[in-house]
Design goal:
This protein has 293 residues and is α/β, with parallel strands linked by helices. The chain has helices at residues 39-49, 64-69, 74-82, 86-97, 111-116, 119-122, 143-154, 215-220, 232-237, 258-271, 276-285, 288-292, and strands at 8-12, 33-34, 37-38, 54-59, 100-104, 127-130, 134-137, 157-163, 173-181, 184-192, 203-211, 243-247, 251-254. It contains 12 helices and 13 strands.
Length: 293
């Protein structure tokens, strides 16, 4: 088998963000800021830090702000140059230098359909999928890089996963398969949201994938499933090629959830070199009961 490098990534970002209404009525949830940076920018940076060269973002209606954010802004660049704000100018130019493409998902038909929209862009190459709601913090060894290294070794699709407590298995797709090492399984099946006590393992699929292009044929023939949507999980369950699940290292934040978003905001603020120390002092001195009252 000829080894093909993982060069391209797909970021599905067409959802309505209903859990964050009313702010997402006109603002894409992916553009909500974690401190001073849109959530989707953290995900794109992870892809770039993992060696990805081209990115396709699957958008929908009311997502124009994502395209504008990564586009050239001549007026803003001129203003920053006139004001001598070199650091901000370099930052804005760097955003526009990222090789990003956009395509719209015509209707909200599920994650599987969103990935299928990328077929022409991907061609016959292996590719990465990064969900727009999941930020993974690991500055030393990016999450996607860990998956790509696993793909390079095993030459099969790799599902990003983490171990979850027993009482949380019913919230996720859980891996069934053969344990190859402490953090790697050969996938034999995926059980969607099993009842507590019925899960085949504690390894939950969470937000990152490296897929082989044969997934597109399966997606084209996948019937609508849960929620009357085309589910990526259903297509993966039907694939004949090897699939692995890697328990990646890193702190995952579900920014599509209010609490997850707030956790990400607080923890990234504490890491921020400009405000982290002062913010930490503020939190240490905060009288929670008086704020609640």
């Amino acid at each position: 088998m000829d080894k093909k490098r993982v060069r391209k990534a797909v970021i599905p970002a067409a959802g309505f963000g209903t859990r964050f209404l009313p702010v997402t009525k006109a603002q894409p949830k992916e553009m909500l800021p974690i401190v001073d940076t849109p959530a989707i920018q953290y995900i794109i940076q992870e892809a770039l830090d993992s060696g990805i060269e081209e990115i396709l973002i699957i958008t929908g209606r009311n997502k124009r702000a994502i395209e504008d954010h990564f586009d050239t802004s001549v007026e803003l660049e001129q203003l920053l140059q006139q004001q001598g704000k070199k650091k901000q100018l370099d930052m804005v130019r760097k955003l526009a230098d990222v090789k990003i493409h956009f395509i719209r998902q015509k209707a909200p038909r599920g994650l599987g359909d969103a990935v299928l929209c990328a077929k022409a862009f991907i061609g016959d190459e292996p590719f990465a999928v990064l969900l727009g709601d999941d930020i993974v913090y690991n500055p030393e060894n990016p999450c996607l890089k860990q998956l790509i290294e696993c793909y390079d070794e095993y030459q099969g699709s790799v599902l990003g996963a983490q171990f979850v407590p027993d009482d949380k298995v019913s919230s996720y797709g859980i891996v069934s398969g053969k344990k190859l090492s402490d953090n790697l399984y050969h996938v034999e099946g995926l059980v969607e949201k099993p009842a507590v006590g019925m899960a085949p393992s504690n390894l939950a699929v969470l937000g990152r994938y490296v897929l082989t292009p044969d997934v597109f044929e399966k997606l084209e023939n996948t019937k609508p499933g849960a929620g009357n949507e085309i589910q990526l999980t259903d297509a993966l369950a039907d694939m004949e090629t090897d699939i692995y699940a890697l328990a990646y290292e890193g702190i995952r934040y579900d920014t599509g959830d209010r609490l997850g978003f707030l956790k990400a905001t607080v923890e990234y603020a504490l890491r921020n070199e400009l405000i982290g120390e002062e913010f930490g002092k503020y939190l240490a001195e905060l009288d929670i009961e008086s704020v609640k009252n």
